[in-house]
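Appendix B. One record, verbatim.
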Amino acid sequence: MHAPLAERLRPHSIDEYIGQTHLVGVGSVLRRMIDSGNVTSFILWGPPGVGKTTLARIIANATESPFYTLSAVHSGVKEVREVMDRCKADATSMFSKGRPILFIDEIHRFNKAQQDSLLGAVESGIVTLIGATTENPSFEVIRPLLSRAQVYVLKPLEDDDLMTLLTRAITADVVLKKRKFRIDSTKALFRFAGGDARKLLNILDLIEQSAMPDEEIVIDDRTVTERLQENPLAYDKTGEMHYDIISAFIKSIRGSDPDAAIYWLARMIAGGEAPEFIARRLVILAAEDIGLANPNALLLANATFDVIHKIGWPEGRIPLAECVVYLATSPKSNSAYLSIDAALEKVNETGNLPVPLHLRNAPTKLMKELDYGKNYLYAHNYPGNFVRQQFLPDGLDGVTFWHPCSNPAEDRLKAVQESRWGKKY
């Protein structure tokens, strides 16, 4: 029984590594670390299947350092401390050639207590920490740890990288090199792979295994699509369709389909997705896609994000489901989202236009003499707490950025604004 193709082709040296030339190319930061043998703590942030774990192992091999791994999914504080004790023993051993490297996969899933337990060893130099995450470390990694570990961003593999990987697989792999391949088109293969090396190799593995022993294996768009339609989960055993599923999830809520939204939520939960990731996307969606049509949506989404941090799994699935159904069935509006993008575009176009004098503060005598704040009208001194005056810079007065969508809440806002400003929204 052969190991999966992705495992058989895992590179063992930096020269075999494909992609991420901005980090491992000649003269790049990680290449210099490897060549000098002086490896500092860092976190690798990037999508699945771009070589985070492989890169950590290559660095450990190249520097001949003791290498320990922890999975944030299966390890608690107890396991972290046990590994730290072994690292301390290695660090003081006369037989150890390099400082121990501790690799933590999915470090974003470590809670604050687990991350705190790493600080002492990292700060004292007992261990070099290499973390891997698919989530933004700014949100998921505690600040003291971030200050001690540089963050390096890994990118999805380019088509040229995927082509190099495909060629290596069919010419160098112990199993595939015995088969006859014909490559007619790689468009569908690369599209389904989505910059993910592991996904590409799993698809290739699937195609090879579904072919007869003496059959020529044709790689073309039709074959790839047919094989994946016949085996929709064959290349997704560990939740590698992370970005596809979150996209379907968001679009189902935006499209007001609570049943589809709950289904995709269940897929993410069953696949081991981090609840914080799901909750954070709901907060963004509440502001972007529901917005002023129902401002309570943002309040509920934010409350869900807070609750998830307090209760975790498995109970966290319940407030997540409540929030998902509420957002999916809520009226939709993207007017706030479009308004800020339109304003940013105008700012980029017009630059730093001066603030009108009447809107400026005048805390000093000189500023008053320069007419700062002169003729400003204090809204609360007028009926209805409103009075017309210019608030935009000269040259932009009268420009409209907010265009309300048609829904009961924004219809009311629109009517009020038109009565105030005498212009159409």
